[in-house]
Structure prediction request, 388 residues.
Amino acid sequence: FIFVGGRHFHSTWKESLENISEIDVIVRGEGEITSLELLNSYFSNRDFSHLKGIAFRSGNGNVIFTPQRESAKLDSLPMPAWHLFDLSKYKTTLEGERQTKAIGVISSRGCPNDCTFCANNSFQRTLRLRSPKNFVDEIEFLNKTYGYNGFDIWDDTLTMSKKHVLEICDEIIKRKLDIIWYARARVNTVNEEILRKMKEAGCRIIGFGIESGSERILKSIKKYITLDEIKNAVYLSAKLGFITKCWFIHGLPGETLDDVRKTKDLMRNLKNYGERFGSTVMNFANFPLLYPGTPMTEDALRAGDSSPGFNWSKEIYFEENKKMGLDYMIPVYESQALPIRKIIEFNRRYEKEPRYLFQEFFYQLRQIKDWRAFKIFIKRFLIFIKVK
Prediction:
């Protein structure tokens, strides 16, 4: 008996059941309550049609889709059964810092934002919060029982509710927990008060999904943030000494090479904030991935801007993706007006510009704090010379 769930199958339930014979049942939405009821019905030899939140095949092969289950109140769910894992086998370190032993936790579910490329568009839109006490109870348990000092907080946006994040920080401070943690945020949901409190409570790394340096593109993907908000959030984070991770996407729908240059210029400017305050600002850029149920995916399918042979219900190997250094198992959005190869070529030219080369050289030089960092710098510099 095989049942599956998660964001992918939530949006592809019909074609998955029609094309993948091994799957018996698909759980749509959240899985905790539905999975328990499903297993109880299975082991009791009861029909599944009375269960909410599933899709399955009837006896004659037709696909049956039951009403959606209401979202759970998060505090009503028990703490994850950490004792069922041999946690000594997991060697994960804190993202962005890569030294402290870390584990993932989550204080909320759902994202009310409208970003056209995001899988949450079709999965969980309503923001629901665990109580700060309930959440920090889990952190304290993992800290004292298993010795975890690093925590990767996997909320889509921890700072979506100012009250929520400040109360979590107060709870950590009150309990005098000696921990450090990484949080994902949006640039329009932070200010100096919030960032200072997060720093006091142990947050050392913060990540912002910025996506583009073009106001026009930010509007078209419904990001609903401005360049001023981007610069202010990263400036404050750098000023307060965070390791700041900034995420970008090249080749979004409607982009031109001028938009790509604006993004590259913004990445350079944000890095300067780190140099100014002696902190670290890290930029990461990739190309748009197509996820089931997103507006960008639907538009790409209509316009023919998806990978050849695109199909959610079978394993596909995208040879062209691999040649460009992309994940060869995931379909990528590629505009016919601005192919990915053109963007890659533009980026290479941009990074050969003298002003960029000098800035990058001195930035990396200033990152050297010890002998190990110096050896890494020399290794990267030699690779850079060879490539150029």
Notes: Residues 257-277 form the longest helix (21 residues). The first strand starts at residue 3 and ends at 4.
